[in-house]
Design a protein that fits this description.
single chain; 227 residues; alpha+beta; 7 helices; 39% helix; globular
Length: 227
């Protein structure tokens, strides 16, 4: 009987440890996403143009998306998104992105991915919590630089603009074929319960304190872009 109780205790401790580790991973992803935005927008003349970021309805970041193969291969990443609401940037929604072609990037490196949802149609697809870039939502490589005054194509071409950064190189990148769906495991880890995309991204819930690093960073750069 004692051995049985000891076994139950060990299993329970292992489960608790695993859950705590997963929660830390979700929280670390929030910090990593903030770091990606800071690094990209802090680089002189090589960030997301102010006009583009200032017009975005939602911003999604995938820190260290894993990529295998040559030119086109298996890809997998976990990220988070936030949308503008009357009260400010929304509580984050966690998602998984798989597939898609990165075009110019070669090798089995990890890349940071940033996606800007530019209009209400793109936001509607995001709120559905499962869609495919290029099929459900139009997607294009985003312009790079401090300003995009001479390039107005981005205003008309796509619901989603995509960027990637690898080994210090930051550029707009085509991501046709990528599938995006809600990361239910990370959502439960972060919030302690299941929270639908629409609930978090439309501002129906308050962001938990653990989201502050990402939301504060996003608000800072969005405010800079709006000046």
């Amino acid at each position: 009987m004692k051995k049985f109780l000891l076994l139950i205790l060990i299993v329970s401790l292992c489960a608790f440890s695993f859950a705590a580790d997963e929660e830390t991973k979700a929280t670390e992803r929030v910090q990593a996403a903030a770091d990606v935005l800071n690094d990209i927008q802090g680089a002189p003349d090589k960030g997301i143009p102010e006009e583009v970021l200032g017009s975005a309805e939602c911003v999604a970041v995938v820190p260290s998306m894993l990529k295998g193969g040559f030119i086109v291969g298996a890809k997998y990443g976990r990220g988070l998104a936030s949308c503008r609401t009357p009260k400010g940037w929304s509580a984050p929604a966690f998602f998984v992105v798989t597939g898609g072609s990165f075009g110019f990037q070669i090798g089995g490196q990890a890349v940071d991915l940033v996606m800007l949802i530019m209009n209400k149609d793109g936001m509607r697809h995001l709120l559905s919590s499962e869609f495919a870039l290029g099929a459900d939502a139009s997607v294009a490589a985003g312009p790079v630089g401090r300003h995009a005054e001479g390039n107005t194509d981005w205003k008309m071409r796509a619901e989603v603009l995509t960027y990637s950064r690898a080994r210090g190189l930051f550029a707009g990148v085509s991501l046709n074929g990528a599938a995006i769906k809600q990361d239910k495991d990370s959502t439960r880890e972060f919030y302690g319960r299941m929270v639908p995309f629409r609930t978090s991204l439309t501002g129906e819930i308050e962001p938990p304190p653990a989201a502050n690093t990402f939301l504060t960073t996003l608000a800072k750069w969005a405010q800079e872009a709006a000046k």
